Amino acid sequence: METETQELKDAGLKITAPRVKILQILESSAIRHLSAEDVYRKLLTNNEEIGLATVYRVLTQFEAAGLVIRHHFEEGHSVFELAGTFHHDHLVCIKCGRVEEFSDADIEALQCKIADKFGFELTEHNLNMYGYCPKCQTGD
Amino acid sequence: METETQELKDAGLKITAPRVKILQILESSAIRHLSAEDVYRKLLTNNEEIGLATVYRVLTQFEAAGLVIRHHFEEGHSVFELAGTFHHDHLVCIKCGRVEEFSDADIEALQCKIADKFGFELTEHNLNMYGYCPKCQTGD
DNA sequence: GATATTTATGAGAGCAATTATTATTCTTCT
DNA sequence: AGAAGAATAATAATTGCTCTCATAAATATC
User: Fold this and answer.
1) In Å, how far is B117's CA from the nearest CA of chain A?
2) What CATH number is attached to the domain comprising B102?
3) CB–CB of B137 and A130 under 8 A?
4) Does residue A115 carry a pLDDT above 60?
5) Tens of pLDDT along B21-70?
6) Domain residue limits at B12
7) pLDDT tens digits, residue range B62-115?
């Protein structure tokens, strides 16, 4: 349980109970993409007395520190995922909400080429595809 | 000024002053991507007495009718653009907000290939790239 | 063209997600 | 251990958007 504190230190954040707890939640979750609410509910389940506002604040700090990545798959609320080792894109099932991750070097390369063409200096990019996952294609 | 009414009819919507005005705004705007607030402000500037709720309602109807496409480039609010003839993706300047549109058949093809691999039946996809446009790259 | 029927609108309350404020508590540095 | 500074909890405020419902307008019918 000492790894989280080290990660926080490396990220330049001070060690506080809420930050450690939230990082643990993110690392131990089976579901990679969690909303602030999700995190908050998990904290409540663990009987942690951490306010929702703190969850938002901490997640935003984690984002700034590069520990997590914020996505907005659907309108109105963000989901967060632990920053992995490499960039990837998402396939989101619009029925069950399942998210598949993938990474494609060819697409990445094409994206850079296009950004170059327009003279843009890229800081971020995301490709989200929406549709029905195999399980949710009810024979249509 | 008769074109808008025809477009509305074709979309199966009744002709009302708010709908015509909002469609005109969208068609005459130099900026292709407008938020509901933007549209509302433009209406106010033109001394139109149209409520914000109506703007939202009408834009949502336009979306349902396929007249406009809703994007959520950044969290928390949508922007709308007139539905063009073909799908395209976006390059968004995170400083000045300028949006460049592009379309790349190779990327589209790769996307389909990936969706196939995962067995997804795609309904929608979008690729947004964020960065600094040529004008906003002030040598750091 | 007038009237009936249906549908849309406007104003403001309401809502959900998120952020700001502020007094208090905790972490770190010495 | 104690001071200084930063982080937290609780609550209030804000934002983007939707709902309600009385009123008004648009199409259908005569």
Assistant:
1) 10
2) 3.30.1490.190
3) no
4) yes
5) 999 999 999 999 999 999 999 999 999 999 999 999 999 999 999 999 99
6) 3-82
7) 999 999 999 988 888 899 999 976 889 999 998 888 899 999 999 999 999 999
B46 & B76 share domain: yes
- Which domain-ending residue is among B65, B82, B99? B82
Instruction: Using an 8 Å CB-CB cutoff, list chain B residues near A75.
Output: 72, 78
CB contact under 8 A, A133 and B110: no
Is B122 found in the same domain as B77? no
Cβ-contact A70, A126 below 8 angstroms: no
Domain count, chain A: 2
How far is the CA of A45 from the CAs of A23, A42, A102, B99, in angstroms?
A: 16, 5, 32, 43
Between the CA of B14 and the C1' of C5, what is the distance in angstroms?
15
Token pair, residue A127, equals: 């490709």
Q: Is the CB of B56 under 7 A from strand D?
A: yes
The answer on B7 and B75 residing in a single domain is: yes
Say whether residue B10 is in contact with chain A using an 8 A CB cutoff: no
Q: With CB atoms and an 8 Å threshold, state whether B118 touches A133.
A: yes
Do both B106 and B122 map to the same domain?
yes
Please state, in angstroms and rounded to a whole number, the distance separating the CA atoms of residues B90 and B67. Answer: 19
pLDDT, one tens digit per residue, over A16-49 is 999 999 999 999 999 999 999 999 999 999 999 8
Determine if strand D comes within 7 Å of the CB of A8: no
Same domain (yes/no): A12, A61: yes
- Assigned token pair, A7: 């990660």
Q: Is some CB atom of chain B closer than 8 A to the CB atom of A128?
A: yes
Beta bridge pairs of residue A91: A100, A129
Residues 6+ apart with CB under 8 A from A40: A50, A52, A55
